[in-house]
């Protein structure tokens, strides 16, 4: 998308030579030095600036028109109006000249030592999205000689939403950038965190990560994305003076209606960043609760297809055979669903326990810690939860959790479902407790507890613990203790 601004010499003025002359020399500035001074070409090469313009905000560029010859020259200014994302207004020392510029009738007389200036005010539309861009070209040519031209360029872009804070000692700045100004249900915010050394000295490695706190329109806390499981903070390398590094960001998939208050946090930094308020899109919800459940259950490979919950989420039972054909007893399942209707989408949580006649147990999806909580009963037991954002167009998981306990004899297997395919993630002697978490729900886990005998029921809980965590973009990692 291009906005043209041409600077052209007008008809010769009395007393000014009408020879072939030279092209004008144009340069452009936003907040820094002049760019393009002494460079003359008609394509803007090496004569460009980049200008970020936030939605609803205005930025001013200045174009300097210089006459490199020893006699006065007259230039005519013409150009097109702005674009849907960026409006453009042209001004000189006398005031608004937009109409004359866009009509091609604006002229200026420039002496050899007195350049003329044109001020270009660029405003981004209030609804312009992050990444929206346009190119503003400013062209100057000698009247009657279009081959004698000079062009400067401004690349306009709507930047990410960015907030930051400085550490208590003034040494470090942590910043959070959000590429989306309207959040999409079922998708991450896309936040990125950076850490900058503000000093002239080397700073030792920093143990920190970025996470988000979400609150609803009433101020109620919805989620803190910082993981609750154990483990050291990621470490940065030592920072050179003014060096910037990227921090690991714990994001999440959106499953609440907006507007949402989002508070970015840099762990362990003793600093505070401004909170921001972001709307949430409303793509359209399924017609009924039953439709939403059907769409979530239909995910390829889902074990909930053998125990499809009722139209309102009522429990149903079924038998699930080993998905790889292994010679193991099937899992008997009791499954149900919880549906939360949001503005323009539904949130469906599919839950199960095994054996099918086992006690009721619901996993708190916001309360996971690195280790299973006490589970009901004393024998083999499995509980799992798989939660989705469901719209008329797509089904997106946002978390999956599973807890299990095995006793007795035999070998237990952990099955993993990923992108419609089941595989065995690990195995070991029965007599353990396990916990599994997939932060975005792109993996789903089932401990094959039926492979373990019930001998040992009523004995103390197994002491061996198995933890499996699948972080975004990474395969599951299992730790045994």
Description:
With 481 residues, the protein is mainly beta. The protein has three domains: 2-157, Immunoglobulin-like (Sandwich), CATH 2.60.40; 161-278, Immunoglobulin-like, CATH 2.60.40; 289-480, no CATH class. It has two helices and 31 strands. The strands form six sheets. The chain has an eight-stranded mixed β-sheet with strand order 21-22-23-24-25-28-30-31, with helices on one face. The chain has a six-stranded mixed β-sheet with strand order 3-11-10-1-5-8. Strand 24 and strand 25 (395-406) form a beta hairpin. The longest helix is centred in the middle third of the chain and has 9 residues, at 289-297. Mean pLDDT is 88; it is low at 1-20.
* % residues in beta strands: 35-45%
Major sheet details: 8 strands, mixed
The count of β-strands is: 31
Radius of gyration: 32 Å
Total helical elements: 2
Helix content: under 10%
Secondary-structure map with pairings?
Elements: E1 2-8, E2 25-29, E3 48-52, E4 58-66, E5 73-79, E6 86-92, E7 95-96, H1 98-103, E8 106-110, E9 116-124, E10 133-142, E11 145-157, E12 161-166, E13 172-178, E14 192-197, E15 210-215, E16 221-224, E17 244-247, E18 249-250, E19 260-266, E20 276-278, H2 289-297, E21 316-320, E22 331-342, E23 345-354, E24 381-390, E25 395-406, E26 411-418, E27 421-429, E28 432-438, E29 443-447, E30 464-470, E31 477-480
Parallel strand pairs: 1-10, 3-11, 15-18, 28-30
Antiparallel strand pairs: 1-5, 2-4, 4-9, 5-8, 6-7, 6-9, 10-11, 12-13, 13-14, 14-17, 15-16, 15-19, 19-20, 21-22, 22-23, 23-24, 24-25, 25-28, 26-27, 26-29, 30-31
